[in-house]
């Protein structure tokens, strides 16, 4: 494999040099816990009846009273793993787990050493050992030591998780949750690894592991939690820039290190889904058209650069919301898009991963719902696959803040989705997209709904021609009823239908927004300048205070999508050599050549499309609240009437 310019290979001979270091850590070392508590601490036994055990010595020296006086305990992780079952012989999977841990420890140490060489830490270490370290450099020395600890911990957890994911495919995934990972130390890389290996030893002992699958599940859970905590700790640490901006590769394992991004093994999910062809989707012209474009956009992702040209040029849809009445075709739209991406990936030989976040993810245990949601996000955003994640009936899954009927689990999922879709750490590479679908979008938390960059109105068949087409399609072929005076599927010709659908949005569709639109035009005339368009946006905000800066961003993103209002030629998807296997810069240039300039009409239409959806949600929400209040009053009146009748008798 040819490495890209920014991808550095970790040499195999350097990794194997660290095997002795890694094996020694697995075989045994002493560690005094500083943060976590020993889970199986022995209870002091009485030496004889009536005579208690001696109390622990408490230092009276100032400054030492708060220092831990616990004795260091030997950690023998290799023996702990081999004792996980009653078999006297080592099982193949136990040996594989130990080899994975040894390999991950060695790679973590090599990566830490490379960072030390690049940042000058190696020279500072030598000066410190010689006693010649200048006082002005001590602060930077400590910062770099702490940085190597974070790097070693994350690389160790990342690679262990990566290697064990291959073993999970053999044993079947067995979910075993470990406790909270606490012994995370940042003094230096060796002490940091000692701390987490000590705690992993404690977790295995406490979990009473009985099978190899449980062992792999526990270690995987431990590594995922460790990665998450180290990533949070590494935020904003400036000295880590040299690591975050570099990419490393271990050729023998096909493993890449991209900063603090998890590198799960790239494998496709087996889809048990009835795929739909585009011609089987009747109506929903704009939603269908944008879903088809998005499916092809995903395929432009470059696995070497870990970036999609559409994400750089603008026009990539990372999150979208499809809303409509029950039975209008939301599930059909999911089946169509997933089927298209699946077929394209099979042609190109790309791994494709589809996952749906369902109500099964809501758990009564505190924090478990958030873990399920994070696992969903992590699986779909894996930079080594093409991902498509859906959240069907999101109004039931994600709780609305302030709603007393929302469970703790639902609110946990809301928090995870909000952070993942537009949080400080959100990175849009362009390899995946998330679709949120709902029959009742007004019940979705406002802030979460606004994180949907695009809106797909799934309104189903609308015209007479649409209903004839869908009747003919669903009737099948087991009949001889003539079609009559109708050109089948002529109304479904996308370019013609989409143009008409966009044209409708030259004026708002919702009554409340129409009043704002007409008032602004009467005052300032045609909306043909940036200033006038901004005046219209301010008027919308005055009518609906939820129309914030995020709404403007979503609108401008939608406008950029319109500028990329072209479909990548089908031939590019059928023959990978024409486009998919080109290098990143060539792909980017080919896409840029197809772009068209942004027009005033595009901007007005996208403002109206987005604002219409917000006004529609607000009107529905208010109307539902009013209807519920009226129904409650009617019940109370009827209850009062019946009560009065009973008291009279």
From TrEMBL:
Gene3D superfamilies: P-loop containing nucleotide triphosphate hydrolases. This is AAA family ATPase. Pfam families: AAA. Residues 324-457 form the ATPase AAA-type core domain.
